[in-house]
Design goal:
Elements lengths: L8 H10 L31 E3 L5 E4 L15 E3 L16 H7 L9 H7 L12 H19 L43 H11 L9 H4 L1 H14 L8 H6 L4 H13 L5 H17 L11
Antiparallel strand pairs: 1-2, 2-3
């Protein structure tokens, strides 16, 4: 199972500070959102509900709430792109049927709708370049996610003896949630206090103080995985997103995620497992895997 490692703490902080975070997707047009019910102040909503606000734009509930204003209570609501134009995660190149085919034994926590909702934070993901490139990036992300979680089965790191090791007390903010609180969680098994801090800062969520959100809130879990994929190079030289859209190949995504432990002949079996997933997923999506599959 992956342990989120960056070559040095300094590198981790530099990457987190220097890598631009992609802007959230634009709100959907009023015309495309007209099919959703109007938001009603004080009416109880549950996670996943989609409403049309007074400005005609759509919002999706990320958490149950008693009818909070979507434009004010942004922890409970986020803009929902309900048309299917460019830059819109509604046009995800992986259908729900294909997602279920990829992950037949997945934990229900890892829902397709949760992933599509989280994609609004990084609209360039699987939506850049040709249709082939879009499918290749989606397959590459999901292949690595599958490897990290045993096919989207595990939500948290299984080796509990590792839990106390992911606290770097040299950070000025320390480990306020406790030394053993920053173990691997979510689709890319986010770990280490400095990664929880950087991801939380980018997403506007206090993950340093409450890392358990990643294992209890599916939308947050998917967002941390997309944060890493789209903005972090890890022990590699580029992000997973850039590796796929710029033609560097799947092998460089492995390097950015766990290259210090797997690449350059260090653990060929783990690399092969990721490549096998990628080849299978590209086949499901009806596209070629391209070259440079190994790191």
């Amino acid at each position: 199972m992956l342990r989120r490692r960056i070559s040095s703490v300094l590198t981790a902080l530099v990457i987190a500070a220097a890598t631009p975070v992609l802007l959230p997707a634009q709100n959907a047009s009023a015309a495309a959102c007209s099919s959703y019910p109007s938001w009603v102040a004080g009416k109880a909503y549950v996670t996943g509900d989609i409403v049309r606000y007074t400005d005609g734009k759509a919002y999706i509930a990320e958490h149950d709430n008693p009818g909070y204003d979507p434009t004010i209570s942004t922890w409970y609501w986020e803009p929902y792109a309900c048309d299917s134009g460019p830059g819109n995660p509604a046009a995800f190149v992986v259908s729900e049927a294909q997602f279920n085919q990829m992950f037949p034994n997945r934990n229900s926590f890892y829902s397709y709708s949760g992933l599509v909702t989280a994609m609004s934070a990084y609209p360039a993901f699987a939506n850049t370049g040709s249709d082939t490139v879009k499918r290749q990036e989606a397959a590459a992300f999901l292949a690595n996610v599958s490897h990290e979680t045993g096919g989207l089965v595990h939500i948290v790191e299984q080796n509990t003896s590792n839990y106390p090791t992911y606290c770097d007390w040299n950070q000025p903010y320390g480990c306020p949630a406790g030394q053993a609180a920053y173990y691997g969680r979510g689709p890319i098994q986010l770990s280490w206090n400095f990664n929880y801090k950087a991801a939380g800062d980018a997403l506007g969520i206090d993950l340093l103080g409450n890392p358990w959100l990643v294992q209890n809130d599916a939308a947050v879990a998917w967002k941390t995985a997309l944060w890493y994929w789209n903005t972090q190079s890890g022990p590699g030289t580029m992000t997973g997103h850039n590796a796929m859209v710029n033609g560097a190949g799947f092998g460089q995504t492995i390097r950015s995620i766990n290259g210090s432990l797997e690449c350059d002949g260090k653990n060929p079996a783990q690399v092969q497992s990721r490549v096998n997933n990628y080849q299978r997923f590209t086949q499901i999506l009806g596209t070629s895997p391209g070259g440079n599959l190994y790191c």
